[in-house]
Amino acid sequence: MIVFNVHDMTCGHCAGLINKAVHDIDPAARVEIDLTTHRVTIASATAEAGELRQAIQEAGYTPEVVS
What we know:
This protein is of the alpha+beta class and 67 residues long. It has one domain (2-65): Alpha-Beta Plaits (2-Layer Sandwich), CATH 3.30.70. It contains two helices and four strands; from the N terminus they run βαββαβ. It has helices at 12-25, 49-58; strands spanning 2-5, 30-34, 39-43, 64-65. It has a four-stranded antiparallel sheet, with helices on one face. α1 crosses α2. The protein starts with a strand and ends with a strand. InterPro entries: Heavy-metal-associated_CS, HMA_dom, HMA_dom_sf.
């Protein structure tokens, strides 16, 4: 599991864009988004944290990896 805090994700539209960005990298990824905590949890068999972080950044957001 890869977990990001995305503090500038504030609404369902934001969540949808992030979900799409992740699925563009790995269509089989499981994505859980919690708008209240601004947390995105991703289970991916093919993509690494750096790739997913870049995809979210390209969608216009600032993900921070949670260790």
